[in-house]
Structure formats: C-alpha cells, structure tokens
Write a structure and sequence with these properties.
This protein is mostly helical. About 75% of the residues lie in helices and about 0% in strands. It has one domain. The protein is globular, with a radius of gyration of 22 Å.
Length: about 450
C-alpha cells in the first residue's frame, strides 16, 4: 500500500505540474498522498518533514537563499543594462549568423557560468535567438535545444568553479569546494559540448534537407536585428562584471594551490575563508559583480534600487519552486519504500560510484529537479558512500553530474518554463531537449564514472 501510494503521489505530482498547476500546491498535495498512504502522521509530515526537516523545503531555502538572490539580482541587473544581449551579439559577430546554434549555446554557457540564473538567460537570449533563427531559417525546437545545452548541462554540473546551486549544494554537503575533481569536470563538459553540438548540427542538416524552417508562434513578434542592437553597452563593459565574478571565485583557489601549507597572514586567511565558504563566497562574488554593473551602465541611472528589487523578486519563484519539490522529497524519505530503495541500491554490491549514480538519478527523476535530487541525496545517502571510502571530491563531481541527467523529465520545472516562454509543444520540441539534457549528460557521467573507477577514486 505504501509503495503504491508513492507511485500514485509521483504520478499525481507529474500530472499536476504538466497541467500547469502551481508546483508548490502540487508538491503539497503529493506529500499528503504519501503521508496518508504510508501511515505517516499528517501534521508532522507537513510541518516538519516537508517544511523544516533535514530535507525540508525551508531548510533548503534557508541554507541557499543567499546564492539564489545573488544570482537573480546579478542576472537582472545585467539583463536590464542589456549587457546579456551585448554578449550574445558579440558571439554572433565573432562566429557569424550562419553558426546560430553555436552562438546561442556559447552565449548561454558564458552567462550561466558567470552566475546568471537560467530563467534570466532564457528571457534575454531568446529574442536574439529568434532573430538568428529567422535569418538561418531554422526551427525553434533546435534553438530550444541550444539554449538547454548551453544553460542547463555542463555549466550547471560539470565545469569546476561554477557558482551554480548544484555545485554549491555538493560542496556544502561534502565539505569540498566548487573546484572539486576539476579534471573529471572538464572531461564531462567536453563530452557534453561535443555530443550535444553533434546532435544539434545533425538536426540542423536534417531540418534543412526536409524543408523544415523557421516556425514562430502566431502571437510572436520576431525582433529585427537593428532593434536588438539599439542602446547596447560596449562589449568590454558588458563582459567585465562576468569576468570579475569568475575571477573572485577562481583566484583564491589558484592562490591556495600556490601558497605553502604553513602560510600565514591576511592573504592566507582570506584564501582559507574563500575555499571553506561554498555558499557565501560565490554569493559575495556575484554581489561585487552586481556593484560593478550598477556603476558601469548609464542605462541603469535612476533605477538602480528598483532593478535590485526586481532581481530579488526574480529569486522567489526559483527558490520556492525548488524548495517545494525538496519538501515533497523530505516526506518521501521518511517512508519504508524509500528506506528499502536506499538499502537495495547501497547494499546491492555495485561499485560505489555506480550505486551513487543510480540513487541520485532516481531521486532527481522523482523530483524533476537536479538541485532537489542532489539535496535529498546529500541529506540522506551521501554519508553512506563516504563510509565506503569514496573520495569526497570525486563523489562531489559524480553527484552533481548525475543530478543533471534524469531531472529533465517532462515535469521538470525548467523544461516547463522553457516550453512556455518559447511557445513550444512537448510533441514538437521535447525529443531534442531530452536527448541534450538527459541522454548527453548521462553518457558523459557514465564515461567520467568509468574513468574515476579506473583511477581508483572509489576506494
């Protein structure tokens, strides 16, 4: 009965989200179904396990609200200053309009690696992507795929140093830093770029051969290139805040590698603080980048505080939506079914890294959230793998990579939002998105997992 209740709750959650129900309401309804079908006290389930338990919604929101707000504010300021558009135009000018898919992917990748939240990237890149797709006569589903690859795969989980929430969750949960297992991360990122762009270029050739061209929605106004380029800042001014954010994150790690272990003084203390603070330090980097952006862009004159306020508002939906999914998972982990699953996966005799991959992938698939699945794994299962002797840095990288695979099932919030923003149907566009955000990351993760296992990192 309990396991049937879990399946029913999961199906209900997915169905409600796909029908457009608010994800917070959907997660609460699904959590009630889990509690009732598994004989859990309903009050304790909702007020403790869902809300404030170790894997609770507000526990997560409290731990990571600073990085969410810092990223959303930075992204909003960059967008309203039109710096994000200028960066995309820069890639277009460097690579040429004919390389539309590369332009879109690289622009999204740079922005997300620099700390701009995914939803802001989609909103700001999409107008330029539409203009380029029209010129190249490419279907929008391929543009959606390029955005998904650039914004939601390797910069989210693979690249060392990224201030993504996934990298931060793993660092906080395992006591590592944002640069954990950099070689494995770079290998995974290279594989995702190569496989993903090969798929997109294949799709482009097939679309052209089949006569499938640009297909805007009836209500969509496709902007002209001239409209997009009016009142843009200089490219160097536009890119400097991103460079500053990344430099603040990366430099302490470089100094930590260069300084002797017995080094003392203010620099050594600052470096140690930066490396030991996976949430505060990247948040501080984003805040400093925001201050530089506010000072650099005359377009923001007279509305700086208003822009900061709008950015803060932009953080509310992502953090609450993610927290709600995690709250649902916080109830699920109290059930006998989850305990059985944990025992089955951990004690199945599989290699530890493969076992970790399977457990994270399953939880991320259930929640439809990479950050949600990763947080639940860190709170419930990660200590078991550390006890097996898995290197924390390797587990950090494998865990983040694994979280970014099966999270992108149809009920994933980011997928739902992307479909809505771009006026696409699942029937038309989801196949490409699934290949690029599920298939490609899973293949890359398995390859990296094999490399790590061969190097003896699992023990």
């Amino acid at each position: 009965m309990g396991n049937l209740g879990l399946l029913l709750a999961l199906g209900l959650l997915i169905g409600l989200v796909l029908r457009g129900t608010n994800v917070i309401l959907a997660s609460l309804i699904a959590a009630v179904v889990v509690a009732l079908s598994n004989g859990l006290p309903i009050a304790e389930s909702l007020l403790t396990h869902y809300a404030t338990g170790p894997a609770g919604a507000f526990t997560f929101a409290g731990q990571f609200f600073l990085i969410f707000i810092a990223g959303a504010v930075f992204g909003k300021v960059m967008a309203e200053a039109r710096a994000t558009t200028r960066i995309a135009v820069l890639f277009r000018d460097l690579l040429g309009r004919e390389r539309v898919l590369w332009v879109v992917m690289l622009a999204c990748a740079l922005l997300t690696y620099g700390g701009v939240v995914v939803f802001v990237v989609i909103f700001t890149i999409y107008p330029l992507a539409l203009d380029l797709a029209r010129d190249a006569n490419l279907p929008k589903r391929l543009i959606a795929g390029a955005i998904a690859l650039g914004a939601g795969t390797f910069t989210m989980t693979a690249l060392p140093g990224a201030p993504s929430i996934h990298n931060v969750i793993a660092a906080r949960g395992l006591g590592t830093d944002l640069f954990a297992a950099p070689g494995l991360g770079l290998l995974a990122a290279g594989l995702m770029i190569a496989l993903g762009m090969a798929w997109l270029e294949r799709g482009r050739r097939r679309a052209l051969a089949a006569g499938e061209g640009f297909d805007p929605a009836p209500h969509e106004r496709v902007p002209e290139g001239e409209d997009l380029e009016q009142d843009l800042p200089h490219w160097l001014t536009a890119i400097l805040p991103l460079v500053l954010v990344l430099a603040i994150i990366i430099v302490p790690r470089l100094l930590a590698a260069l300084l002797p272990d017995e080094a003392e003084g203010s620099v050594a203390r600052l470096v140690a603080f930066a490396v030991a603070e996976p949430v505060f330090w990247p948040s501080l980097a984003l805040a400093i980048g925001t201050l530089l952006a506010l000072a650099s862009f005359p377009r923001l004159a007279g509305q700086r505080l208003a822009s900061l306020g709008r950015g803060t508002n932009d953080a509310i939906l992502p953090i609450m939506s993610t927290a709600a999914i995690i709250g649902f998972g916080g109830v699920v982990v109290q059930t006998g079914g989850f305990a059985q699953f944990s025992t089955l996966v951990v004690d199945a005799g599989l290699p530890p890294l493969l076992s970790a991959f399977l457990s994270i992938s399953t939880v991320a698939a259930i929640t439809g959230s990479a950050s949600g699945g990763l947080q639940i794994f860190m709170a419930s299962l990660a200590p078991r793998y550390l006890e097996m002797g898995v290197d924390p840095e390797v587990l950090h990288r494998i865990a983040t990579l694994a979280s970014g695979g099966f999270d992108s099932l149809p009920h994933c919030g980011a997928v739902v939002v992307m479909m809505a923003i771009m006026s696409l149907s699942y029937r038309n566009a989801y196949r490409d998105i699934a290949v690029l955000t599920i298939g490609v990351p899973v293949i890359a993760t398995l390859v990296v997992l094999g490399v790590a296992a061969l190097s003896g990192a699992a023990a």
